[in-house]
Amino acid sequence: MLSTVRTRLPIIYARRGPLLAVRPSSGTPERIPVNNPDPPKDVQNVSNTNALPTSAAGNQDGALQGLPEVEEEKRTMQAPNRATIWSRSQAPRSKAMTGPRFEQTIMEYQPRPEAAISLIHKQPVRWTHDRVVSCDGGGGPLGHPRIFINVDKPQICMCTYCGLPFANEHHRQHLESLPSTSYPLVPQGDSAEISESQRITDEPLGQR
Fold first, then answer.
1. Closest to 148 (Cα-Cα) out of 134, 128, 165
2. Which helix (H) or strand (E) segment is 12 a member of?
3. Helix (H) or strand (E) run with residue 5 in it
4. 22 pLDDT tier (thresholds 50, 70, 90)
5. pLDDT digits (tens, 9 = 90+) for 96-125
6. How far is CA 152 from the centre of its chain?
7. 142-172: string of b/e by CB count within 10 Å (b at 16+)?
8. For residue 93, with 0-12 CB atoms within 10 Å meaning exposed, 13-18 middle and 19 or more buried, which class applies?
9. Does residue 133 contact residue 166 with C-beta atoms inside 8 Å?
């Protein structure tokens, strides 16, 4: 009986076809990509009729019009300030926004919020003379639980909740000598920057 089962195992596995590749860290099964010598080419989804001005029926002052090349670039951008995805769970807009629904869509008038992952990296470093700093996101209902961050290492330490960067003044010279940093070391005057004092009131539930 045992020998019969052993002889049938190779036949069973052969009929199942290719197995799934499993990541040891996450345990999520992923199929092995197929080596396709002729991959499908990207086709422009935006229709050329977008270049023809169309009446907005009183909703807009001017006519609806968009160049196909410009609209196609906006369609494939993941966000106005980021071209690619920033999470494995996201679907690229170039694949998600396809089909007749988006052929004559003027992307300029569609909701396109900017990616927070790029906005947070425009915040300048908060310099301190202490070895440990605290961050609560400004407090109030718009903040987050207070955490304490160790900044005694020669690097930029960011808050794991809101992403604000902190660094010790003792390491300023070392950080300035680096060819590039993930956060600006001084304010750049960008409109996305938040002032170092985020609080409007000192109340326990004060708004930012």
1. 134
2. helix 2-16
3. helix 2-16
4. very low
5. 777 777 766 777 777 778 888 888 898 999
6. 29
7. ebeeeeebebeeebbbbbeebbbbbbbeebe
8. buried
9. yes
H helix runs in 46-197, sequence order: 68-76, 93-96, 116-119, 172-177
**Cα–Cα dist 4/185, whole Å:** 71
Task: Identify the burial level of 135 via C-beta atoms within 10 angstroms of its C-beta, where 0-12 means exposed, 13-18 middle and 19 or more buried.
Answer: buried
Helices marked H in 17-169 — which ranges?
68-76, 93-96, 116-119
Query: Which amino acid, one-letter code, is at 12?
Result: I
Give every CB contact of residue 83 below 8 A, 6+ residues apart in sequence.
76, 77
Given this model, what pLDDT does residue 20 score? 45
Cα–Cα dist 78/113, whole Å: 10
pLDDT digits (tens, 9 = 90+) for 159-183: 999 899 999 999 999 999 999 999 9
Helix/strand/coil for 126: strand
* DSSP H or E run through 173: helix 172-177
Q: Residue 179 corresponds to which tokens in the numbers above?
A: 């060819």
The CA distance from 104 to 102, in Å, is 6
Ranges of H-type helices in the chain: 2-16, 68-76, 93-96, 116-119, 172-177
Q: Are 137 and 194 in contact (CB under 8 A)?
A: no
